[in-house]
Amino acid sequence: MKLKSILFITCLLMLSSCRKTNPQISPMPEGKEYEIKFTTSGLAQEVRPNLGGGISTKSQNSSNQVSTINQPNTIEYLIYSMDNKLVERKTERINYLNGVPSNNGGTHKTKLLEGRYKIGIFAHSGEFKFDNSQLNNHEILIDRGFNYLIRRDISNPKETFIYHYKDFTVEKDTIYPTLKLERLNSKLEILIKDEIPSNISFITFGGNLPNKFYPFILSPQNPYQYTTPSNILFNLSNHAGKKGLILENIIQVGNKVGIIDNYTIEAFDNKFELLFSKNIKQVLFKENHITRLTGRLFDVNNDVGFKVEFIREYATKVIEKEI
């Protein structure tokens, strides 16, 4: 009998211990929920200028272009309370039709209690590291790796767009005005005016390129982190003999203020041997702008350098520099 009593008391103690180590989830605050809906735009905002002299960059399929631009494939919706506690996070794929995003971005529909909130939206293609503790501390890792053939670190940044946190009020079912995403990245264009020699197969543009960045950190703070210098790689193996070749890629360097730095262009043959390099000083990259380098790259008698053009908002105003 005593043994049964001991077993019974032991079971009661074990049940009590289980209840203590598995606390119940706190109940949600009471109140009426309202349906809200956000739509986004801005992912198809590029306007291409004409370069003059019969060279146009409107077509990304041009035989006179070497383009490796990748559009964002994921959109993140982040909703926080006014005391910076995460209320909802939603991740969606961005679908494209003939290179144009469906609905120019996406639509987010949810239900929230009455009150004030803040929403941030980010469109990207990189590895997104979400930070539960800090709403501005989410980070994007830029795709990069070491190319053993040309013995250079190679970066492959992608287009990124953002809607920085803004407050909104929920007090009834609401369809909010379209939220326009802004482009975070810059774009590099290299317009080579002279003929591509037959022994040139690869060109790199390199310098102080970041390995990751924090999209929700605003200027004047620097949202970028750097480790070692890196390069953008262009394959020219099928472009020998062409004049006016345009090389273009995304550069995840500039902020709203603009960052000025020195860079290097290198040329390699089909055996991955370095043939020559050229330093380009004081190149400006700025968020949502194109920087275009223009000049004769292979003319040994050309000491003038490249002209650098700076195009505001992917539109028609240009800042120029020669390399």
Could you please describe the fold and organization of this structure?
The longest helix has 20 residues, at 2-21. The strands form eight sheets. Strands 4-24-19-27-28 form a five-stranded mixed β-sheet, with no helix packed on it. Strands 6-5-10-15-18 form a five-stranded antiparallel β-sheet, with no helix packed on it. With 323 residues, the chain is mostly beta strands. It has one domain. Strand 2 (50-52) and strand 3 form a beta hairpin. The protein is elongated. It is 6% helix and 46% strand.
Summarize this entry quickly:
The protein is mostly beta strands and 323 residues long.
List the helices and strands and how they pair.
Elements: H1 2-21, E1 33-41, E2 50-52, E3 55-56, E4 65-67, E5 74-81, E6 86-93, E7 96-97, E8 100-101, E9 107-113, E10 115-124, E11 127-129, E12 139-141, E13 144-147, E14 152-155, E15 161-170, E16 174-175, E17 179-180, E18 182-183, E19 186-192, E20 202-207, E21 212-213, E22 224-225, E23 230-235, E24 245-251, E25 259-268, E26 274-285, E27 290-295, E28 307-311
Parallel strand pairs: 1-16, 1-17, 4-24, 19-27
Antiparallel strand pairs: 1-9, 2-3, 5-6, 5-10, 7-8, 10-15, 11-12, 12-21, 13-14, 15-18, 19-24, 20-23, 20-25, 21-22, 25-26, 27-28
